[in-house]
Amino acid sequence: MKIFTEEEIRENIKIDTTVIQEIKSAFTDLYTKNVQMPPIMRVDIPENKAEVDVKTAYIPGYKSFALKVSSGFFNNYKYGLPSTGGLMFLISAINGQPEALLYDNGYLTDVRTAAAGAVAADYLANETIDVVGVIGAGAQARYQVEALRFVRDFQHVHIYSKTKKRVLEFKQEMEEKLDIIVSVKDSPEEVARGSDLIITTTPAEEPVLQREWIQPGTHITAMGADAPYKQELDPKILQMADFVVCDVIDQCEVCGELKHAIEANLMDKKNVFELGQLTSQKQKLRDRDDAITVTDLTGTGVQDTKIALYVYKKLIETVESNNK
Amino acid sequence: MKIFTEEEIRENIKIDTTVIQEIKSAFTDLYTKNVQMPPIMRVDIPENKAEVDVKTAYIPGYKSFALKVSSGFFNNYKYGLPSTGGLMFLISAINGQPEALLYDNGYLTDVRTAAAGAVAADYLANETIDVVGVIGAGAQARYQVEALRFVRDFQHVHIYSKTKKRVLEFKQEMEEKLDIIVSVKDSPEEVARGSDLIITTTPAEEPVLQREWIQPGTHITAMGADAPYKQELDPKILQMADFVVCDVIDQCEVCGELKHAIEANLMDKKNVFELGQLTSQKQKLRDRDDAITVTDLTGTGVQDTKIALYVYKKLIETVESNNK
Which of A143, A146, A174, B275 to pair with B266, CA 20 to 30 A apart? Predict the structure, then answer.
């Protein structure tokens, strides 16, 4: 079993067109092949404000598959540690031997999640996007904006976060890295009212976006909710949306925005689609510029398997070329 | 993260009274504490006759918990590889960091499974056992017999297995190791009719033991069934048993012998108990010498966590004492 460190992985894997293509193909596989993807396994450790999730998926025809352990320990700031972490195993689908341990501390989860946001936006958002609104200023906010840049050519980001320090760091980093203008806003409402595309990336347990604030034509990527008690969107946003696209409908009914909209009796599900349906049929649902579209991302094992396969191949090539 | 190899683990951990006590306490914890043990996660790879299971459990009050990946790849004989494998992670319950990788290739699963058989037998079997019957001659057959020796002082083993070569190896190994007499029998019936305690440890998908063969007073440990399609016991055995003891009732209803007995409408469940109920209340259900008792073992994450904690502590102590 080969072991790769976070440093090696970060050095070799960045968000780019290839990664986005890989994640796109993951959703196509999920929709068109008999992918074995069991429900997420979850352990809660309430006394430490902690949760550990396990995801996996086997895609027929591939020689290996990933098993991912990801953790959220929300008291970790007390110990000077990041709250999220994780690692992936690549396991042979031929003989069951563990092939690689990708000890990435959650980096690959960030990358594959951001890539899913970009894939969805590519299929759903208007072609012309001037202002991207971001609610939340953590690592995933950065990765989402970075990934989105590969599918839409925006120049402005409007951001709101409760954490003042983080939001200023975000501004500085993103302006330097992407040559865009980042404006810090005082409320989610201010962000929403001025944006063509909105990304919510918070650990919120109640809506951070209200229906009244959403402008015609907006595409929304909501990726914070990945547990039954998490929620970022006013369920009325899903109700009024022309199209709602889930990574996995069954899963979003349990732990995504869709769950809350269904519970509020606001959804008839006739406008609910799966991302793999769009990618496999090259189907752009948007039928007019002022349509409102929502992507509900809860995270899937098939993304993990696809990125792990890609990373492993790339790292092995790097090792081999260094040995020459 | 510390990594321990199968060799290091095998060198330091053998089946003994301490391990059996640890597993006994695992069942007590499961019954008396708010253990977080999600359902088993399972990936099937039918084209390679393969399955991968993930188990985990967090026991309140412990600083770490295990996450175990175990695999069965039943074409592996073609590649000269063992069909089962696996590894365990010990994860901090305080901050989520992976503390250790126990790369044991399934050895600890064998040990903790055998220990559970011994715990159950200790609570359920008659005190005097002359002949132990064994159906199946794989690694687990050996470990079950070894573990049982710590709780009952038998001198004879009667064994049946379809695989002639394996059964002769079993005889030689066990006679040498345990100073007992092993008699190879020609059928499961012959084994059953002459035994006081029967262990079934096969990958059978239909009963290997029939009700008519079971003698009064017999205790049966069935540990082969750990998937919905697996079955070792005629469901009528569970029906006629005075007491049926599951590792976890909910789980045995899905993937153990109990499932098949319920499906055949043969169980009213009033004589069904959980092992932790016995260990926590020091309750020996057997009320007379000729009672028939059955243990249905499907395997639990709480056993994995307990053995991983024990192994890690022991290995760290060994490393420290070697460094002195």
Answer: B275
In this prediction, residues B165-170 reach a mean pLDDT of 94
Annotated catalytic residue A68: yes
Q: How far apart are alpha carbons A204 and A197 in whole angstroms?
A: 19
Closest CA to B65 of B41, B88, B91, B87: B91
Nearest CA in chain B to A70: B96
Sheet holding B41-45, edge to edge: B2-5, B98-103, B84-92, B64-73, B50-57, B41-45
Q: Decide: helix, strand or coil at residue B67.
A: strand
Residue A123: closest CA among A306, A315, A294 = A294
User: Cβ of A234: how many Cβ atoms within 10 Å?
Assistant: 23
pTM: 0.92
Interface contact flag, B45 A101, Cβ < 8 Å: no
Q: How far is B138 from chain A (nearest CA, A)?
A: 19
Question: CA angle, corner B313, sides to B307 and B317, nearest 5?
Answer: 145
Distance from CA of A309 to the nearest CA of B (A): 17
Residues 6+ apart with CB under 8 A from A80: none
Name every chain B residue with its beta carbon within 8 A of the beta carbon of A1: 103
Interface predicted TM-score (ipTM) of this complex, two decimals: 0.90
Instruction: Count contacts between A and B (CB, < 8 Å).
Output: 100
A143-167, pLDDT tens digit by residue?
Answer: 999 999 999 999 999 999 998 899 9
In angstroms, the CA B173 to CA B191 distance is: 19
Nearest CA-CA partner of A139 in A93, A174, A89: A174
Which tens digit of pLDDT belongs to each residue from A77-115? 899 998 889 999 999 999 999 999 999 999 999 999 999
Which residues in chain B are closer than 8 Å to A95, comparing Cβ atoms? 73, 75-76, 79, 81
